[in-house]
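Bumping my old thread because nobody answered last time. Still need a sequence for this structure:
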């Protein structure tokens, strides 16, 4: 990355529409529920997202979420995101997402994506992927990440995906309790764990884990800073001031809005 020409790095952006594969309309009801929850229905392509961030002079980390087992929806290729990052290496980093249900095959894919595609980290969403973060089926993938000393972003807290749907679309919020990452942090000490979002309704648990385990970080994506819990603001300015990261959750929240609201919040 060309840090001198970037004014910030957004650690949390989503690949929404592939330029390689046709859009998979299966499971669109989850998209509609998230759109209603966030008040946004933006679906930029990967190329459009990169163009927006280049215009803003903001670097970005981009990933998809592989939830093929839970939602039955074809993922955006990790290879496409990795190629985009290579083509825009001055301002973009690619993370990969592999469904933990893929076990050892997932571990093989993780190794290949690191060695051949140049991915620099991984993304997990326990609620949407339908697994407990400490389930041993995920360990083969974790072991690869740990061996390469790479970061992994885990969704924590409430999920807009499934919100308002009958039975929440069958998605279990409990899987995204950040306290479950405490065990993961112990057994995989070289994996840098990023707990994504203010972890409502488990903000105190997230702060406890991040304070206790030095390989655990927090990103501030998915919420306007105007609504950050008071205890999160307190820790971000004191005990965790070196382990709190900027992220937007684009396209659901733009970095423009996030930064504007941050200035207003003081």
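Sorry it took so long. Here it is:
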């Amino acid at each position: 990355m060309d840090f001198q020409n970037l004014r910030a790095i957004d650690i949390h952006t989503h690949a929404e529409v592939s330029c390689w594969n046709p859009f998979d309309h299966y499971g669109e009801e989850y998209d509609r529920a998230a759109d209603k929850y966030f008040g946004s229905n933006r679906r930029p392509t990967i190329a459009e997202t990169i163009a927006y961030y280049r215009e803003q002079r903001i670097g970005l980390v981009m990933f998809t979420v592989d939830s093929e087992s839970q939602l039955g929806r074809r993922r955006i290729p990790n290879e496409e995101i990795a190629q985009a990052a290579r083509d825009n290496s001055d301002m973009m980093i690619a993370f990969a997402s592999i469904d933990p249900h893929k076990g050892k095959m997932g571990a093989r894919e993780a190794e290949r994506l690191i060695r051949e595609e140049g991915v620099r980290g991984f993304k997990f969403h326990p609620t949407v992927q339908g697994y407990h973060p400490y389930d041993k089926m995920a360990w083969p993938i974790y072991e690869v990440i740990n061996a390469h000393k790479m970061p992994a972003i885990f969704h924590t807290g409430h999920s807009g995906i499934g919100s308002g749907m009958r039975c929440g679309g069958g998605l279990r919020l409990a899987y995204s309790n950040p306290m479950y990452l405490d065990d993961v942090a112990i057994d995989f000490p070289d994996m840098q764990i990023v707990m994504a979002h203010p972890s409502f309704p488990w903000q105190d648990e997230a702060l406890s884990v991040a304070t206790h385990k030095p390989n655990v970080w927090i990103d501030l994506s998915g919420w306007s800073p105007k609504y950050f819990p008071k205890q999160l603001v307190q820790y971000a300015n004191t005990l965790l001031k070196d382990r709190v990261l900027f992220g937007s959750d684009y396209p659901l929240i733009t970095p423009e809005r996030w930064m504007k609201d941050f200035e207003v919040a003081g």
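The chain has a mean pLDDT of 94. Let me know if any region looks off to you.
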